[in-house]
Amino acid sequence: MKKLVTIALPVYKRLDYVVSALQSIAEQDYPNIELIVSDNGENGSLVKDLADQWYPRPYRFRQNPSTLPLPIHYNQLIEAATGEYFAFLDYDDVISPNYVSELVRILDDHPDVAVALSREEIVDPSGRILRASSADMPERFSGPDFLRSWTMYGYESYATVLGRTAYIKADGGHPFFPGGTYTDDAILIKLCLRGAVGISQRCVFRWRWSEISHGWSLKCASLAEDTRRFLRFLDRDPAILRYQAKEPKEWLDIKKHLFRMAWHTYYERWAGLYRERMPPASWVRAGFAMPFIRDYYGMVSEVLWYAVKGKCIKCIKRLGVGSRGIDRSVQ
After folding, report:
1. CB of 283 within 8 A of CB of 275?
2. How far apart are the first and last CA of the chain?
3. What's the pLDDT score for residue 317?
């Protein structure tokens, strides 16, 4: 019998894409799937009704009586999993029909592989492909090499990967980042420190990008808190400390890449997305929400300098126009 694979489908408030997610799991050509549907949005019977209607295979349903922070909810699903392999699928994403069978093949054939990934396609709310991960990447990485290449191959989300359940459970699941940012990254990092990474271009994870999705609707203060916690995670998580004790020089090199990835993510959103959303004074204060990181504050200082310079130029132009107007009226 083929090994059991657990797919966890966590659901919050938005239910408009749940049917698509359920259908993509139902269409898998792999026969031995344990689907766990979990309602964390206080949706009454709505989520179970959708699963009963649109998922023809047996499945397990669970529901929290009240909404819990995302990491706690996700760890409930990890704890409930009984499959040898495990993947999350967020309720607004989908996977190709051969996703499970293709990645199980990699994990079965290569015992040293801790986690397997598919090609990634970033789609808009209608399903139109916006971007995709690179087709020119190796089929296999060592865990450390993959971490060093974190942003090189066009992946924008690591929400759905297929990992060995025993490793995920042994390493404590998701750290507590209250806003849920970086939780998927943390799972993947710890899997990479356990073993190799296998990549298949023959199956697809479609990540639905939307400005109203959880990650992009997060408030700046929440992202700042999650980022600070992630930076501490890189120094304190027991799975990381275990690896660091064995490979101190290699971890120092890996950490340099991950550390920059985290603060640079915050910087990019602060300088772009949040600048448009926040009152100026609040936005300026948010720029100082990171611990002291020389490169980060150098970039923040430059943005603030140009922002102040732009304001001054606008004020001077307005004063100049006003003076000429007065002069003309006097004449």
Report:
1. yes
2. 95
3. 76
